[in-house]
Design goal:
four-stranded mixed β-sheet, single chain, five-stranded parallel β-sheet, alpha/beta, 8 helices, 194 residues, elongated
Length: 194
């Protein structure tokens, strides 16, 4: 049986590591973590991909999760309902949320990393306002955006926004677009805003 040692590894990597085994077709495997939030996140992911989990807490504050492929299909699973629906992701900032700036920038990179590991990718990824920093200045973001682009995601940056921030000549991934196209996409597709 395969084992994943995700102790001391920050979110979302424990989930991504487990999801990779699911994608490889493993029907049974173990994941070791040392944070309760990782246990909660792994349990949620397991349910989404039709696995059941057994959790064993060890004396040293670590957890062992046994993943087993479930025979029954959860028809109420919201992920199943959205699998066929196309969507776009829109970034209007180079950070996620209103908290600590450095942490918020780290969160947006975690979001992009997790997006590269999804079963269904967005059709478009649109960056406007400070979101254009993700396609021009933020190396970790650019790396993940290139992975998404290689998988068929169209990455677009607002030309007016690039110009406003003095980044017009700096896009390292995707294409430059205009607000007319952005509005057209946002009014015709399901929009995800991190």
């Amino acid at each position: 049986m395969k084992e994943v040692d995700a102790r001391g590894i920050e979110c979302p990597m424990p989930v991504i590591m487990a999801k990779r085994l699911v994608n490889e077709g493993e029907e049974e495997f173990k994941v070791f973590v040392n944070e309760k939030i990782a246990v909660e996140n792994l349990n949620k992911m397991a349910k989404q991909v039709n696995y059941k989990t057994s959790v064993r807490e060890k004396e040293n504050g670590e957890f062992e999760l046994l993943f087993e492929k479930s025979e029954s299909v959860d028809k109420d699973n919201p992920k199943k309902l959205m699998e066929s629906e196309e969507y776009i992701v829109v970034f209007d900032s180079d950070s996620l949320g209103e908290g600590d700036k450095d942490f918020s920038k780290k969160l947006i990179e975690s979001f992009l990393l997790a997006l590269t590991e999804q079963d269904k990718y967005p059709e478009y990824l649109i960056c406007y306002n400070r979101g254009v920093y993700l396609t021009t200045e933020r190396e970790n973001a650019i790396e993940d955006l290139k992975k998404l682009e290689d998988r068929g995601v169209k990455v677009l940056s607002c030309g007016l926004c690039l110009d406003n921030y003095g980044l017009k000549e700096k896009p390292k991934v995707g294409k430059v677009t205009n607000m007319y196209e952005i509005v057209g996409l946002m009014t015709s597709k399901r929009v995800v805003r991190p």
